[in-house]
Amino acid sequence: MAVSSSSILSPLHYNFNFDNKKLAFLSTNPLVFSISSKPTKTNREAGGGLTAEDKKVLRERYGFDPNEYISETKTRRRKELQRKGKGKEVVPEEEAKPPRTTHKLLQVLGGKAKRKKLLSPKGMDVRPMMEVVKGAAFDILQVAGGCPASLRPGRWLDLYSGTGSVGIEAISRGCSEVHFVEMDPWVVSNVLRPNLEWTGFLDVSVIHPVRVETFLEQADRLVGSNGPFDYISITPPYTQVDYGTLMAQISQSAIVGEDTFVVVEYPLRTDMLDSCGCLVKIKDRRFGRTHLAIYGPKWAQKKRKSEQTLQNTAQKV
What we know:
Blueprint: E1 7-9, E2 15-17, H1 20-28, E3 34-35, H2 52-61, H3 66-84, E4 102-107, E5 117-121, H4 131-144, E6 155-159, H5 165-172, E7 177-181, H6 185-199, E8 205-208, H7 212-217, H8 219-223, E9 231-234, H9 243-251, E10 261-267, E11 275-276, E12 279-287, E13 290-296, H10 298-316
Parallel strand pairs: 6-7, 6-9, 7-8, 9-10
Antiparallel strand pairs: 1-2, 1-3, 4-5, 10-13, 11-12, 12-13
C-alpha cells in the first residue's frame, strides 16, 4: 500500500506526521484517521467541529465515560454564563422597607383635651378618620343623645382604631372608658399608646391587639360582665373588608345593645342597610368620597325628628 508521508488528522483535531514504521503499527491498530496528501484544515479552523454525538462515540472507543465530558462541559458552560450574567436569572433580594415614621397632623377637636396634637403614621398604611368627618360624627351623637355640649357618659368601642383619634375624642368629650381594637403591633406601640399617654387617657383605656373579627368572635369573654357598649365606631380600611359581612357580624354580637350608637365610615358606592340589628339609621352623610352612617335606638330617631320639627316651626314664625 503506497502512502505519502503527510499529516494525519485525528478526530480530536491533532495533526501527526508518521513514517512507514508508524504506519505499519497503525495498520494493526485500526483507528479512524483521515489521511491526505494535501494540507488539511482542521474542523475548528474551518469553523466546524465535532458534534456532541461524535465526541460521545469517540470517548466510548477510547474507554472513557461518554457522559462525563458532557456533564463537565455543561457545568463549565453554566458557570461561565453565570459569571457573564447570561445564565439563570438571579432573583434580586427584596429591598429593605424604609423604617416607619410618624408625624403630628391630627388633633383633638373638643372636650378637655381639645387642640392636643396626636401622632399618626406617615404614608397610607393607616388612614385616620378625617377631622371634618370626626367633628360631624360627634356633633350628631351629642344631639341625638340629648346632650349637645358633650357625650352622654358611657363606654366606647373603637374598632380598627389605628391612631386612636376617634376613641381619644370620645374620652375627651365625656366617655368614661374606651376599648381600642388594633392588630398592628407597631401602630400600638409607636402611635396609639403614646397618644393615650400624651393625652393622659391611658388609665381609662383598654387596648386589644387582635383582629376585629377575632374580637367579635370572643366578645363575650373580652368584654366581660359589663354588657353592650354605649358607642361603637367602625373605621376599617375600605378595600380590606366586606361591609355586609362585617355589619352582620356586629349586629349579631353581644357588643350591641338596644341603646347603642354605631358610627360607620364607608366609601362611595357601598350599600348600607337601614338598620343594624335592633338599631335604626338616624343619619347618613357624604363627605366627598367618604360616607358616614350613624345607627342608634329608635328613641333617638324620634327625638331627632321632633327637634327638626321644632326648628322648622321656629323658622316659619
